[in-house]
Amino acid sequence: MRKLSMDELGRPSVDEFKQLDKLPVTVVLDSVRSLHNVGSVFRTSDGFAVERILLCGITGTPPHRDIEKTALGATQSVAWQYKKNIEEAIINLKQEGKKIIAIEQAEGSTMLHRFTPVLGESYALIFGNEVNGVSEEAMKLIDYCVEIPQFGTKHSFNVVISAGIVLWDFYRKLKLKSGDS
């Protein structure tokens, strides 16, 4: 077995990426405090070709060297916006026709493996603060709450790990199921 070279990977340029058919998902970061986490979510969002990232509350915004350190240029490829107020952001997303999903441990949540996104629908996935999770203000406005099953002693995953797990699951269910790759 041999590792592929960068040329063999055949990745699109930033301009080509912007023209790609995107995963119908907006990633919403609800007061994520670590700039490294923000950058890593950009990189992960690039990897799954999400529509955009919405940065809310205290979440840092590009350009910032700590974001770029982990984003590795994904702040140039992934569209993003900043909205200070999470409630206003969610109301705008609903007006765009997006189904609002908090990724959180909550009463009445649906386990990720049991949630089936619908082809043709568009989603906003809210990932919360590293300590407090998705804000109460956001939780009052969501359509669904999806929870990642966990089996160890810790009570949560890092926000970047959560984003990677959920985006892979949505990509697999929406893109690979429909024959796209």
Automatic annotation (TrEMBL):
Keywords: Methyltransferase, Transferase. Residues 25-168 form the tRNA/rRNA methyltransferase SpoU type domain. Gene3D superfamilies: 3.40.1280.10. One of its GO terms (biological process) is methylation. SUPFAM superfamilies: alpha/beta knot (SSF75217). Pfam families: SpoU_methylase. One of its GO terms (molecular function) is methyltransferase activity. This is RNA methyltransferase.
